[in-house]
Fold this sequence. Notes:
About 20% of the residues lie in helices and about 30% in strands. It is of the alpha+beta class.
Amino acid sequence: MRFSARLAAALLLPLLLLGACAGVPTASPPTASLSDGVWMKGDLHIHSRHSTDSSNNPVAKIIALAEAVHMDYLLISDHDNHVDGDVAHHTWADPEYRSNSLVLLYGAEWTTHRGHGTAIAAKPYDHQALYDVRDARDVKIGEVKRTLGIHLSANHPANGTNNFTFSYDIVDSVEVWNSAVWPANAAAIRVWDGLLKSGRKLTGRGGSDSHHGYPDTPAQATRLSYQARENNVGTPTTWVFAKARTPQAVVDALTNGRVSISANPYAPRVEFYADLDGDGRMDMMMGDNARPPGHPVAFRVQLTGPAVVPGATYTAKVVKDGQPFATLSLSGQTPAAVSFTDTPSPTGRTYYRVEVQGPPTPYPEVPGSMALSGTMLGLSNPIYFNFDPNF
């Protein structure tokens, strides 16, 4: 028995070394529970009156709309350069920044000469320190970000004017769906897929980037007030599967990639699962990373929520390693679901993600958003295999 154990170890060692040399992790963190958590929806990129390029958008008006559409969490991310980095004495100190039903996060849009990002935290932090190194080398910025203990996200990475040109190694997520205008995000999706293919396990998130609220009187209207009807709170909506209804749990879920994006707060939520061990029960979801089992894996795409239209046809596009893999149809029922099977590479990295299109979901509070989002209903974050957790 001792000889067999030693022989097995000797045979296994070269395989482990081969995996390490090929950049494949020899171990992955255990998959978290699929039932110990709660889905929470919110918006992570909104501007109030504390951003000088907004209009008719006091903090109270934003929070009131978020509460009215039953959001669970919210981050008002005003431009930090509009207050010379001192968001602590502006947005955060605003007496209107409070809610009895919303989990409120702390952060700001990090507005620099090399692009924009959103700093996201569960509690107040020293944002001035991050603002002060906005023109520093990426290594220095990364050190400050880690010291502050915040989640940093790359905003609209390829919008043509404020492209994110920092190293993506200093961020935890990427804004892959900015504003209600879904077609404008094609370049951001390509950036995200490129990062994923390189082995970077970066969460894809959404953000309305809304700046303008409904004017209280016609006299208060500005030339951009029309945007309140087209792009506002929750266009798109970012869902997180959090372990608790707390600020830190929301940030943790965002970092871990247990995230889905929908066109608006009423649209169905896209969920994406996998049966790793082949026992007929799903045991992985988007954001999870595991060693490939060496056999075909069953995946399930699911649309959840009362907005699923009975009898309607929904289309799920499965993307594998940045390339189209399959196009599947889901029937309109609650929940609507479809399955497919594939064998992840036993030696290299593999990821799968999903985009779902179908009948637009009405958003009565922001009625113009439907036309801008079109038939795009939502997308999932990837399920990963062989991604190095220490990358």
